[in-house]
Amino acid sequence: MRKIAALGILMAGSILSASAFAEDIKPAVAYDLGGKFDKSFNEAAYTGAEQFKKESGIDYQDFEIQNDSQREQALRRFARNGMSPVVAIGFSYENALAKVAAEFPDTKFAIVDAVVDAPNVRSVVFKEHEGSYLVGTLAALASSSGKVGFVGGMDIPLIRKFACGYKQGALAAKEGAEVFENMTGTTGAAWNDPVKGGELAKSQFDRGADVIYHAAGGTGIGVLQAAADAGKLGIGVDSNQNGLHPGSVLTSMLKRVDVAVATAFGDAKDDKWTSGVYVLGLKEGGVDWALDDNNKALVTEEMKAAVEKAKSDIISGKVEVHDYMADQNCPF
Amino acid sequence: MTRGALPRWADYGLMPALNLAAAFLASGLVVLFIGENPVEAVKILVWGSLGWNEGIGFTLFYATNFIFTGLAVAVAFHAGLFNIGGEGQAYLGGLGVALACLALDRYVPWWVTLPFAVLGAAAAGAAWAFVPAILQAKRGSHVVITTIMFNFIAASLMVYLLVNVMAKAGSMQPETRTFEPGGRLPFLQDVIPGADFGTAPLNLSLIVALMCCMAVWALIWRTKLGYEIRTFGANPVAAVYAGISPVRITVVTMMISGGLAGMMAINEIMGSQHRLLIEFVSGYGFVGIAVALMGRAHPVGIILASILFGMLYQGGAELAFEKPAITRDMIVVIQGLVILFAGALEHMFRPGLVRLLAAFRPTAAQAA
């Protein structure tokens, strides 16, 4: 009995010392212009940070920038206050981080969606085209008309990368499948225009599409709503959006920004921090498709088998998904 | 007539101060409402924007943007035109600056590039204002509507150019390559001995902006064209009767206005970002309207109002850092209140103030 008690004290002691050590890190997140509650990309980062806070009890600081001049300012401000690791969300931080990381070589930085080559920076990028390929496969198989749609947010290379992977996946699953592609807009407002998203989705339904994938942040909420209203199918993005309209969301392309943030914080806490480039594809679990109770009924066994086969083919390298950003071109 | 009832010092000093005080009082209530200490919030805001070198640097950096866009709105205002298109004109101005910098930065030092960049910015901004101007002058399509529409066209055009034409190959960002030193304006602290603005991107554009203020003052109050602009603004019918061509004044004024808005890009693109990037204007064009209203469309007033908005931008960022409960949206609320009290409710205190001053100085009021 005493032995057990002694063990207990020992364990408690080690836990205490662990938490005392853990107090040493002061993590911080800098969100992109979309803001932390964009229901999408930035919010995924927020979720990851919150999850870390809940699990470790370590509080973090965050900041939402208002304009581009604040990028450097925010990172520098965090670094100067002794925050580390500092995670920058979004490729737009690339230049700012390159500059600030050189000024604070002892601070750990991480950036999501871009690569910054510096000894104290961890760069996390995702192979969104691989995840999009999978949902493209599912879309084509679920479609009875052979026509599927894509609604992008702002027309930038990153979103064309989603579209291209999706198209390739759809064509691979069903030869001759037709893919309609629309971008919501050309300004940042395109990330948060659910009304227009819904209109684009409706017009694609009118042209015969019956499954629509969105990569449009807040705009996509309108796409999924339109799909649910029309009795057709939508596909979510970034976070698991299956539960938004159970039975009307075929699946979601998961992009684990939350994991990237939580891992960056956790690695720093556990003294396992490593810098360098992390390319998170299917193999690394950085992207995936979502299957849960909400969409179980929509995904048949054949579809499941097909998408799992595509997944293993991509992981093994048998199928190569074209990366739009490699040559700014989509061959499909 | 109400304006004449107030002495100048009250019109230009006391009124804005009262409006500002009311705005901060209302903001304080909002801050109190979300459970923060308003006095402390003001302290952080003022300290963050004026209390340390880098803060001052950022405040003046933002102010530089607002001076350009504020002047743009003010010039049009004198001709009775409401140019809401500063946002798009500044965006296009960025294209002019970037083209000059990309063409020259590898071959010549910055001071050779600068005049071309200024010219490019002004020309691009002016060109973007030209179409709404000619539509107003010849067809009567209201500039308020057309300039707003042109903001959207500018955004689409620039995205097209940045995504498809000007972007670096293989880059995630829709932006051009970073300019070499020949395309970068020196920071003010590198030019003025002893000045230290930390890492704030305050650069020579501030000097350009102040020169523009002087030029606008001279143009409006010391030239024939300026007289025509003011006459046209005060009474278009009388202006025509006096032999002033409404088409010419509308087009010329709008192009000057657009050119000034375009020059804002010198500060952002050549002075700070050193590359052309998407949506770099981020609202400065619209804030310029508030700046011009608050500054009474006079260059000195515009400089002061620009510094105030620079403080709100920079101090607001510090506030958001220090107080997590005060998000950036709260900062926008505070900025909005300042605009509301300084611009929209401009005449709220005026009648009371006129009566008050008349009671104290009856002879002076009669003389005025």
From TrEMBL, chain B:
Membrane topology (UniProt): Multi-pass membrane protein
Taxonomic lineage: Bacteria, Pseudomonadati, Pseudomonadota, Alphaproteobacteria, Hyphomicrobiales
GO molecular function terms listed in the Swiss-Prot or TrEMBL record: transmembrane transporter activity
Protein name in the entry: ABC transporter permease
Record field: transmembrane: 12-35, 55-78, 90-108, 114-135, 142-163, 202-221, 276-294, 300-321, 330-349
Entry annotated with the keyword Cell division: no
Subcellular location: Cell membrane
One of the record's GO cellular component terms: plasma membrane
Keyword match Transmembrane: yes
UniProt organism field: Stappia albiluteola
Keywords tagged on the record: Cell membrane, Membrane, Transmembrane, Transmembrane helix
PANTHER family: ABC TRANSPORTER, PERMEASE PROTEIN, GUANOSINE ABC TRANSPORTER PERMEASE PROTEIN NUPP
Source taxon at top rank: Bacteria
